[in-house]
Specification:
Chain lengths: ~350, ~350
């Protein structure tokens, strides 16, 4: 698959370029090495996840399984497993913490769908569409409670400090996004603060708890934290770009969702700031009043192309991806390190 | 203030009785001794609560303060303070844990209002009415995250285990209640399971973390846990009774809220099970279809009186209150013990 992206040259000429997104991508840019390295541990994580969604209250496993089975890649728990192993950890607590991280993520998704009033999640009906807002809020709370119980099982106050901090920061980021919603004056720095909190904080915590339970030195912990936060920012920016540039099939969710929900993401910010007065009036109307027509989406995509907003969002993602790679650079070579470096490229070039 | 309650004798005669609820209540039945004993510590708890609702994201302190300032008695954190002191604790972590407990409670209230679609809370507009469901969900999540961060600060894995377990159980109880909603076949045991989870679990955890950080023996911990859970059940049952029998002013919330929301509580269960076919048809219609008219509420109250449902709900509450008192009986006498015993009676006789 390829994505055609158009941008404007300095002389105002629109030029089309084609970015290979899947078939021709860097053969190293794969998540497969990471998946292979952690596959045995991941089986245990999945077993634990299954057992911890169990409850006598029937609705809980139903809702939880709907979301957990819905085809996420479990990238975040894989970061925990790989970072622990890369630091020489030989116990079992990385399994427990990896499952905690996935539960925190799942709880966030459940609450996000309520907050965003989303009816779709990864190409399937969202939990709130199927079971209502009430169940989504409460099962999210249950999973968060279970996440903390598992952290207690992992018996590391250091890991608990990092993950409980992430829980606060994620919610803070979501509130920030809510407050910034429909405010076209949001600038790139504001937006980065939002995604650092709502997305990157969990990537960062997931990567940092590995070295913590392995008893690694502070510079090593710091390296993983930096890797995680920058990978998370890159991941979110690519997600934002894909919502305008990807294909429905490959994405597993409807392209244009962010636009229809009036979500101000980096592509929109760039378009708005670079646009004419007329363009800005279009964006203001679309974001503030929710112009959900197909015509409006077509016009939005045309403006994205005209101002190079997708291409530049991907460039920004590459920038953070590079910081993530450099964060791990001083660490000794290993298969796990190579796999984690590949994941950065994978996240940037991913279409599925 | 008095509440007039009518019940039916075994021979089918309706008899009115008057239960003194305020002016003539047992002079020992006061929360004042407990408040006096923990007042110095409570100042520190309040300071900590204030500082931990701080965030650069403006909406967070606004929403949090609205709820925190809205006149709750902070009974749960007082249980933590008193149980720690009663077990001879001399450090500062009881302050931190007490604040955690209050944050868990506040987060639950925020999410409850979303789930129940409540517009009022303690006689004031609910947060979801003022700031919307989105902010209520997310600020609840933030407060839960902050609660866990404070637990980490308290540096007791035992306290963390108890409180994280409570977080899961509370959410489980809420889901149970959701699943049982509008199901008139819910029986008293089902209902007790719901309130043990959604209300009593936090009372229990609040009381148990005191002896835990004080390093008390298992029988002492168990005594406080039993005290907490039974006090919590009694507290909830009285709440349920007050929603039909109290006065709006004294309650700080609208009498009849549970009825209008179609909430199946013990008074309703008792009325339904004891009623005629015609009565059952009334309750089914009211609970399942939401008969919110004043006439329906009057009829509901008349049925409550006819079948002694309020009186017997209060009797049930007294039963659990007695178990709570007996749970503490083996512990050595102290001012804190007396205050905790008084609180049981206070909860049962409270009207404000």
């Amino acid at each position: 698959m390829i994505a055609a992206v158009f941008y404007q040259t300095t002389r105002g000429v629109s030029v089309g370029i084609v970015i290979p997104l899947e078939e021709n991508r860097n053969p190293q840019a794969s998540i497969t090495p990471l998946m292979d390295l952690v596959s045995q541990d991941m089986l245990l994580v999945n077993q634990l996840i299954l057992s911890k969604t169990g409850s006598d209250v029937q609705m809980i496993p139903e809702v939880a399984k709907h979301l957990i089975d819905s085809g996420g890649k479990r990238l975040r728990p894989m970061l925990t497993l790989a970072s622990a192993k890369m630091c020489g950890y030989s116990g079992n607590h990385h399994i427990t913490l990896a499952a905690s991280v996935e539960f925190m993520h799942t709880a966030t998704l459940l609450h996000d769908d309520v907050v965003d009033e989303s009816d779709m999640r990864r190409g399937k009906s969202s939990a709130r569409k199927l079971w209502g807002n009430q169940a989504s809020v409460l099962v999210g709370d249950f999973l968060l409670g279970q996440a903390f119980r598992m952290m207690v099982d992992a018996d590391s106050m250091g890991a608990l400090a990092v993950l409980s901090n992430a829980a606060s920061v994620i919610a803070e980021g979501e509130v920030m996004q809510l407050a910034a919603a429909q405010n076209m004056e949001t600038n790139e720095d504001d937006y980065l603060a939002v995604i650092r909190a709502k997305t990157a904080a969990l990537f960062s915590a997931a990567a940092e708890v590995g070295p913590i339970i392995a008893g690694a030195e502070k510079p090593v912990r710091d390296a993983f934290r930096s890797y995680g936060v920058n990978l998370g920012v890159a991941f979110q920016l690519v997600d934002d770009a894909l919502d305008y540039g990807g294909s429905k099939q490959a994405l597993g969710k409807n392209t244009g969702d962010d636009f229809r929900e009036g979500k101000i993401t980096l592509p929109v910010l760039l378009c708005y700031r670079r646009g004419s007065d007329q363009d800005r009036a279009f964006w203001k109307d679309a974001m503030e009043n929710g112009s959900s027509s197909d015509e409006a989406l077509l016009q939005a995509n045309a403006l994205m192309e005209k101002y190079g907003a997708i291409k530049d969002t991907i460039s920004r993602a590459r920038h953070y991806g590079q910081i993530a790679r450099d964060a791990l650079a001083p660490l000794p070579p290993s298969a796990h390190k190579d796999a984690l470096l590949d994941v950065v490229e994978f996240c940037i070039s991913r279409v599925s």
